[in-house]
DNA sequence: AAATATAGTTGACTTATTCAACCAATTTGC
DNA sequence: GCAAATTGGTTGAATAAGTCAACTATATTT
Protein backbone atom coordinates (compact mmCIF):
# COMPACT_ATOMS: atom_id res chain seq x y z
CA UNK A 1 0.00 0.00 0.00
CA UNK A 2 1.40 3.38 -0.95
CA UNK A 3 1.55 6.44 1.20
CA UNK A 4 -1.86 7.53 2.36
CA UNK A 5 -0.85 10.81 3.90
CA UNK A 6 -0.04 14.12 2.29
CA UNK A 7 2.58 16.74 3.03
CA UNK A 8 0.17 18.61 5.27
CA UNK A 9 -0.69 15.57 7.35
CA UNK A 10 -4.10 15.06 5.81
CA UNK A 11 -4.85 11.40 5.29
CA UNK A 12 -6.18 10.22 1.96
CA UNK A 13 -7.92 7.18 3.36
CA UNK A 14 -9.54 4.96 0.80
CA UNK A 15 -9.24 7.71 -1.77
CA UNK A 16 -5.56 6.84 -1.92
CA UNK A 17 -6.41 3.42 -3.29
CA UNK A 18 -7.71 4.85 -6.53
CA UNK A 19 -5.55 5.54 -9.52
CA UNK A 20 -8.18 7.95 -10.78
CA UNK A 21 -7.58 10.12 -7.78
CA UNK A 22 -3.83 10.25 -8.33
CA UNK A 23 -4.35 10.91 -11.98
CA UNK A 24 -6.65 13.80 -11.24
CA UNK A 25 -4.31 15.35 -8.74
CA UNK A 26 -1.38 15.39 -11.10
CA UNK A 27 -3.46 16.50 -14.01
CA UNK A 28 -5.02 19.36 -12.07
CA UNK A 29 -1.63 20.60 -11.07
CA UNK A 30 -0.24 20.37 -14.60
CA UNK A 31 -3.26 22.18 -15.88
CA UNK A 32 -2.86 24.94 -13.30
CA UNK A 33 0.79 25.25 -14.31
CA UNK A 34 -0.23 25.57 -17.93
CA UNK A 35 -2.77 28.28 -17.18
CA UNK A 36 -0.26 30.23 -15.11
CA UNK A 37 2.46 29.94 -17.71
CA UNK A 38 0.20 31.14 -20.52
CA UNK A 39 -1.90 33.64 -18.57
CA UNK A 40 -0.46 36.56 -20.53
CA UNK A 41 -1.87 35.21 -23.79
CA UNK A 42 -5.39 34.85 -22.46
CA UNK A 43 -5.93 31.40 -23.94
CA UNK A 44 -9.34 30.04 -23.11
CA UNK A 45 -9.63 26.37 -22.35
CA UNK A 46 -9.44 24.12 -25.38
CA UNK A 47 -7.92 26.76 -27.59
CA UNK A 48 -4.40 25.42 -27.51
CA UNK A 49 -5.33 21.82 -28.18
CA UNK A 50 -7.73 22.86 -30.95
CA UNK A 51 -5.02 24.84 -32.65
CA UNK A 52 -2.56 21.99 -32.30
CA UNK A 53 -5.02 19.52 -33.81
CA UNK A 54 -5.86 21.82 -36.70
CA UNK A 55 -2.15 22.16 -37.35
CA UNK A 56 -1.67 18.40 -37.34
CA UNK A 57 -4.79 17.77 -39.46
CA UNK A 58 -5.16 20.48 -42.07
CA UNK A 59 -8.69 20.52 -43.44
CA UNK A 60 -10.24 18.80 -40.43
CA UNK A 61 -13.91 19.63 -39.89
CA UNK A 62 -15.44 21.20 -36.81
CA UNK A 63 -17.37 18.03 -36.08
CA UNK A 64 -14.24 15.91 -36.20
CA UNK A 65 -12.40 18.34 -34.00
CA UNK A 66 -15.27 18.37 -31.51
CA UNK A 67 -15.30 14.60 -31.33
CA UNK A 68 -11.58 14.38 -30.85
CA UNK A 69 -11.41 16.66 -27.84
CA UNK A 70 -14.86 15.75 -26.58
CA UNK A 71 -16.25 19.26 -26.82
CA UNK A 72 -19.78 20.16 -27.66
CA UNK A 73 -19.92 21.37 -31.25
CA UNK A 74 -21.29 24.72 -30.09
CA UNK A 75 -18.14 25.25 -28.08
CA UNK A 76 -16.10 24.51 -31.17
CA UNK A 77 -17.98 27.22 -33.03
CA UNK A 78 -17.03 29.90 -30.55
CA UNK A 79 -13.51 28.57 -30.26
CA UNK A 80 -13.13 28.85 -34.02
CA UNK A 81 -14.58 32.36 -33.95
CA UNK A 82 -11.90 33.17 -31.42
CA UNK A 83 -9.11 31.57 -33.46
CA UNK A 84 -10.21 33.43 -36.58
CA UNK A 85 -10.44 36.73 -34.70
CA UNK A 86 -6.86 36.24 -33.56
CA UNK A 87 -5.85 35.35 -37.11
CA UNK A 88 -4.51 31.97 -36.05
CA UNK A 89 -6.87 29.74 -38.02
CA UNK A 90 -9.34 29.96 -40.91
CA UNK A 91 -12.49 28.18 -42.02
CA UNK A 92 -12.86 27.28 -45.66
CA UNK A 93 -16.08 25.82 -47.01
CA UNK A 94 -15.38 22.29 -48.25
CA UNK A 95 -16.03 21.78 -51.95
CA UNK A 96 -16.78 18.06 -51.62
CA UNK A 97 -19.29 18.47 -48.82
CA UNK A 98 -20.63 21.99 -48.68
CA UNK A 99 -21.87 21.58 -45.14
CA UNK A 100 -18.40 21.22 -43.74
CA UNK A 101 -15.85 23.80 -42.82
CA UNK A 102 -12.32 22.73 -43.56
CA UNK A 103 -10.07 24.20 -40.91
CA UNK A 104 -6.56 25.49 -41.48
CA UNK A 105 -3.95 27.07 -39.31
CA UNK A 106 -2.37 30.33 -40.52
CA UNK A 107 1.33 31.16 -40.44
CA UNK A 108 0.70 33.43 -37.44
CA UNK A 109 -1.13 30.58 -35.77
CA UNK A 110 1.79 28.30 -36.46
CA UNK A 111 4.19 30.78 -34.93
CA UNK A 112 2.00 31.18 -31.89
CA UNK A 113 1.61 27.43 -31.55
CA UNK A 114 5.36 27.07 -31.64
CA UNK A 115 5.70 29.46 -28.72
CA UNK A 116 2.99 27.81 -26.67
CA UNK A 117 4.53 24.39 -27.23
CA UNK A 118 7.82 25.79 -25.94
CA UNK A 119 6.09 27.04 -22.79
CA UNK A 120 4.31 23.73 -22.28
CA UNK A 121 7.57 21.84 -22.67
CA UNK A 122 9.15 23.94 -19.99
CA UNK A 123 6.38 23.50 -17.46
CA UNK A 124 6.03 19.81 -18.21
CA UNK A 125 9.73 19.18 -17.87
CA UNK A 126 9.72 20.74 -14.44
CA UNK A 127 7.58 17.82 -13.36
CA UNK A 128 8.77 15.11 -15.71
CA UNK A 129 12.49 15.37 -15.14
CA UNK A 130 11.74 13.43 -11.99
CA UNK A 131 11.18 10.41 -14.21
CA UNK A 132 13.79 8.58 -16.24
CA UNK A 133 13.28 8.37 -20.00
CA UNK A 134 12.38 4.71 -19.63
CA UNK A 135 9.80 5.51 -16.98
CA UNK A 136 8.38 8.25 -19.14
CA UNK A 137 7.89 5.92 -22.05
CA UNK A 138 6.31 3.38 -19.78
CA UNK A 139 3.97 5.97 -18.33
CA UNK A 140 2.84 7.02 -21.79
CA UNK A 141 2.29 3.45 -22.78
CA UNK A 142 0.21 2.65 -19.72
CA UNK A 143 -1.89 5.77 -20.22
CA UNK A 144 -2.43 4.87 -23.85
CA UNK A 145 -3.55 1.39 -22.96
CA UNK A 146 -6.00 2.80 -20.46
CA UNK A 147 -7.27 5.31 -22.94
CA UNK A 148 -7.71 2.68 -25.61
CA UNK A 149 -10.18 0.81 -23.41
CA UNK A 150 -12.10 3.98 -22.63
CA UNK A 151 -12.59 4.71 -26.28
CA UNK A 152 -13.45 1.17 -27.29
CA UNK A 153 -16.21 1.07 -24.71
CA UNK A 154 -18.19 4.04 -25.96
CA UNK B 1 7.74 7.57 -30.78
CA UNK B 2 4.34 6.31 -29.83
CA UNK B 3 1.24 6.23 -31.93
CA UNK B 4 0.28 9.67 -33.10
CA UNK B 5 -3.06 8.77 -34.61
CA UNK B 6 -6.38 8.13 -32.95
CA UNK B 7 -9.11 5.61 -33.64
CA UNK B 8 -10.91 8.08 -35.87
CA UNK B 9 -7.85 8.80 -37.99
CA UNK B 10 -7.18 12.20 -36.47
CA UNK B 11 -3.48 12.82 -35.98
CA UNK B 12 -2.23 14.12 -32.68
CA UNK B 13 0.86 15.73 -34.11
CA UNK B 14 3.17 17.26 -31.56
CA UNK B 15 0.40 17.07 -28.97
CA UNK B 16 1.14 13.37 -28.84
CA UNK B 17 4.60 14.09 -27.49
CA UNK B 18 3.25 15.44 -24.24
CA UNK B 19 2.50 13.30 -21.25
CA UNK B 20 0.19 16.01 -19.96
CA UNK B 21 -2.01 15.47 -22.96
CA UNK B 22 -2.24 11.73 -22.41
CA UNK B 23 -2.89 12.27 -18.76
CA UNK B 24 -5.70 14.67 -19.51
CA UNK B 25 -7.33 12.36 -22.00
CA UNK B 26 -7.47 9.43 -19.63
CA UNK B 27 -8.49 11.57 -16.71
CA UNK B 28 -11.28 13.23 -18.66
CA UNK B 29 -12.62 9.87 -19.66
CA UNK B 30 -12.48 8.46 -16.14
CA UNK B 31 -14.17 11.55 -14.84
CA UNK B 32 -16.93 11.25 -17.44
CA UNK B 33 -17.37 7.62 -16.45
CA UNK B 34 -17.67 8.65 -12.83
CA UNK B 35 -20.27 11.30 -13.58
CA UNK B 36 -22.31 8.87 -15.66
CA UNK B 37 -22.14 6.16 -13.06
CA UNK B 38 -23.26 8.46 -10.27
CA UNK B 39 -25.64 10.66 -12.22
CA UNK B 40 -28.64 9.36 -10.27
CA UNK B 41 -27.21 10.76 -7.03
CA UNK B 42 -26.66 14.25 -8.40
CA UNK B 43 -23.22 14.65 -6.90
CA UNK B 44 -21.70 18.00 -7.69
CA UNK B 45 -18.00 18.11 -8.42
CA UNK B 46 -15.81 17.84 -5.36
CA UNK B 47 -18.54 16.44 -3.18
CA UNK B 48 -17.36 12.86 -3.27
CA UNK B 49 -13.72 13.64 -2.56
CA UNK B 50 -14.68 16.05 0.21
CA UNK B 51 -16.79 13.42 1.89
CA UNK B 52 -14.03 10.84 1.55
CA UNK B 53 -11.48 13.18 3.08
CA UNK B 54 -13.77 14.11 5.96
CA UNK B 55 -14.27 10.42 6.58
CA UNK B 56 -10.52 9.79 6.61
CA UNK B 57 -9.81 12.86 8.73
CA UNK B 58 -12.51 13.33 11.33
CA UNK B 59 -12.44 16.85 12.73
CA UNK B 60 -10.62 18.35 9.75
CA UNK B 61 -11.31 22.04 9.21
CA UNK B 62 -12.77 23.65 6.13
CA UNK B 63 -9.52 25.47 5.46
CA UNK B 64 -7.52 22.26 5.58
CA UNK B 65 -10.00 20.54 3.33
CA UNK B 66 -9.88 23.43 0.89
CA UNK B 67 -6.11 23.31 0.71
CA UNK B 68 -6.05 19.58 0.22
CA UNK B 69 -8.30 19.53 -2.80
CA UNK B 70 -7.21 22.93 -4.06
CA UNK B 71 -10.66 24.47 -3.86
CA UNK B 72 -11.43 28.03 -2.96
CA UNK B 73 -12.68 28.19 0.60
CA UNK B 74 -15.95 29.71 -0.56
CA UNK B 75 -16.59 26.60 -2.60
CA UNK B 76 -15.98 24.50 0.45
CA UNK B 77 -18.64 26.47 2.29
CA UNK B 78 -21.33 25.64 -0.21
CA UNK B 79 -20.13 22.07 -0.51
CA UNK B 80 -20.48 21.67 3.24
CA UNK B 81 -23.93 23.28 3.14
CA UNK B 82 -24.80 20.63 0.59
CA UNK B 83 -23.35 17.78 2.64
CA UNK B 84 -25.21 18.94 5.75
CA UNK B 85 -28.46 19.31 3.84
CA UNK B 86 -28.11 15.73 2.69
CA UNK B 87 -27.29 14.69 6.24
CA UNK B 88 -23.96 13.19 5.21
CA UNK B 89 -21.67 15.44 7.22
CA UNK B 90 -21.85 17.90 10.10
CA UNK B 91 -19.94 20.98 11.24
CA UNK B 92 -19.09 21.28 14.90
CA UNK B 93 -17.54 24.43 16.30
CA UNK B 94 -14.07 23.57 17.58
CA UNK B 95 -13.61 24.18 21.29
CA UNK B 96 -9.87 24.81 21.05
CA UNK B 97 -10.16 27.34 18.27
CA UNK B 98 -13.64 28.77 18.04
CA UNK B 99 -13.07 30.04 14.52
CA UNK B 100 -12.80 26.57 13.11
CA UNK B 101 -15.45 24.13 12.12
CA UNK B 102 -14.51 20.57 12.86
CA UNK B 103 -16.03 18.40 10.17
CA UNK B 104 -17.47 14.95 10.70
CA UNK B 105 -19.13 12.42 8.51
CA UNK B 106 -22.46 10.98 9.66
CA UNK B 107 -23.46 7.30 9.58
CA UNK B 108 -25.67 8.06 6.57
CA UNK B 109 -22.71 9.76 4.94
CA UNK B 110 -20.55 6.76 5.64
CA UNK B 111 -23.13 4.46 4.07
CA UNK B 112 -23.41 6.68 1.04
CA UNK B 113 -19.64 6.92 0.74
CA UNK B 114 -19.44 3.15 0.82
CA UNK B 115 -21.83 2.93 -2.10
CA UNK B 116 -20.03 5.56 -4.12
CA UNK B 117 -16.70 3.87 -3.56
CA UNK B 118 -18.21 0.66 -4.85
CA UNK B 119 -19.37 2.42 -8.00
CA UNK B 120 -16.00 4.06 -8.50
CA UNK B 121 -14.24 0.73 -8.10
CA UNK B 122 -16.39 -0.76 -10.80
CA UNK B 123 -15.83 1.99 -13.33
CA UNK B 124 -12.13 2.20 -12.55
CA UNK B 125 -11.64 -1.51 -12.86
CA UNK B 126 -13.18 -1.45 -16.31
CA UNK B 127 -10.17 0.57 -17.37
CA UNK B 128 -7.53 -0.71 -15.01
CA UNK B 129 -7.91 -4.40 -15.57
CA UNK B 130 -5.95 -3.70 -18.72
CA UNK B 131 -2.91 -3.26 -16.53
CA UNK B 132 -1.18 -5.92 -14.49
CA UNK B 133 -0.94 -5.42 -10.73
CA UNK B 134 2.74 -4.63 -11.10
CA UNK B 135 2.02 -2.03 -13.74
CA UNK B 136 -0.66 -0.51 -11.60
CA UNK B 137 1.67 -0.08 -8.69
CA UNK B 138 4.26 1.39 -10.95
CA UNK B 139 1.75 3.82 -12.40
CA UNK B 140 0.72 4.99 -8.95
CA UNK B 141 4.30 5.42 -7.95
CA UNK B 142 5.16 7.48 -11.01
CA UNK B 143 2.12 9.68 -10.50
CA UNK B 144 3.03 10.20 -6.88
CA UNK B 145 6.54 11.21 -7.77
CA UNK B 146 5.20 13.70 -10.28
CA UNK B 147 2.74 15.06 -7.79
CA UNK B 148 5.39 15.41 -5.12
CA UNK B 149 7.33 17.80 -7.33
CA UNK B 150 4.23 19.82 -8.13
CA UNK B 151 3.50 20.33 -4.47
CA UNK B 152 7.06 21.07 -3.45
CA UNK B 153 7.28 23.83 -6.03
CA UNK B 154 4.36 25.88 -4.77
C1' DA C 1 -4.03 46.80 23.61
C1' DA C 2 -3.26 47.41 18.78
C1' DA C 3 -1.95 45.34 14.67
C1' DT C 4 -1.84 41.22 12.04
C1' DA C 5 -3.32 36.79 10.60
C1' DT C 6 -6.60 32.96 10.13
C1' DA C 7 -11.39 30.58 9.65
C1' DG C 8 -15.57 30.93 7.72
C1' DT C 9 -19.27 33.30 5.07
C1' DT C 10 -21.49 36.08 1.51
C1' DG C 11 -22.32 38.08 -2.90
C1' DA C 12 -20.80 39.64 -7.35
C1' DC C 13 -18.72 38.47 -11.41
C1' DT C 14 -16.64 35.76 -15.07
C1' DT C 15 -16.05 31.58 -17.53
C1' DA C 16 -17.43 26.73 -18.77
C1' DT C 17 -20.63 23.33 -19.85
C1' DT C 18 -24.84 21.56 -21.43
C1' DC C 19 -28.94 21.53 -24.16
C1' DA C 20 -32.51 22.35 -27.46
C1' DA C 21 -33.85 24.48 -31.60
C1' DC C 22 -32.82 25.66 -36.08
C1' DC C 23 -31.02 25.91 -41.27
C1' DA C 24 -28.48 23.93 -44.97
C1' DA C 25 -26.50 20.12 -47.29
C1' DT C 26 -26.05 15.19 -47.79
C1' DT C 27 -27.29 10.37 -47.51
C1' DT C 28 -30.62 6.57 -47.10
C1' DG C 29 -34.62 3.81 -48.16
C1' DC C 30 -38.13 3.19 -50.75
C1' DG D 1 -36.31 10.65 -57.91
C1' DC D 2 -38.25 11.92 -53.57
C1' DA D 3 -39.42 11.87 -48.67
C1' DA D 4 -37.22 10.85 -44.43
C1' DA D 5 -33.42 10.69 -41.72
C1' DT D 6 -28.71 12.19 -40.79
C1' DT D 7 -24.89 15.25 -40.47
C1' DG D 8 -22.37 19.88 -40.07
C1' DG D 9 -22.65 24.22 -38.34
C1' DT D 10 -24.84 28.10 -35.74
C1' DT D 11 -27.42 30.48 -32.12
C1' DG D 12 -29.20 31.42 -27.66
C1' DA D 13 -30.74 30.14 -23.17
C1' DA D 14 -29.97 27.81 -18.88
C1' DT D 15 -27.06 25.89 -15.49
C1' DA D 16 -22.85 24.93 -13.26
C1' DA D 17 -18.02 26.05 -11.93
C1' DG D 18 -14.41 28.89 -10.71
C1' DT D 19 -12.52 33.41 -9.07
C1' DC D 20 -12.34 37.33 -6.15
C1' DA D 21 -13.06 40.92 -2.83
C1' DA D 22 -15.25 42.28 1.29
C1' DC D 23 -16.67 41.28 5.81
C1' DT D 24 -17.28 39.15 10.79
C1' DA D 25 -15.31 36.68 14.41
C1' DT D 26 -11.63 34.68 16.77
C1' DA D 27 -6.50 33.98 17.58
C1' DT D 28 -1.86 35.34 17.54
C1' DT D 29 1.93 38.57 17.58
C1' DT D 30 4.48 42.47 19.24
From TrEMBL, chains A, B:
SMART domains per record: HTH_MARR (SM00347)
Biological processes, Gene Ontology terms: response to stress
SUPFAM superfamilies, A to Z: Winged helix' DNA-binding domain
GO molecular function: DNA binding; DNA-binding transcription factor activity
Keywords recorded for this protein, A-Z: DNA-binding
Annotated Gene3D superfamilies: Winged helix-like DNA-binding domain superfamily/Winged helix DNA-binding domain
Highest taxon of the lineage: Bacteria
Domain HTH marR-type, chain residue ranges per copy: 16-148
Name of the featured protein: DNA-binding MarR family transcriptional regulator
Biological source species: Novosphingobium sediminicola
Amino acid sequence: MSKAETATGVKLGRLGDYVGFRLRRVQNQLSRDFVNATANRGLRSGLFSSLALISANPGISQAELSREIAMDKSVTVSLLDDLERRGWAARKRSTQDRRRHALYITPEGERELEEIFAVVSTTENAVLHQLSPAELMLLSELLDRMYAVCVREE
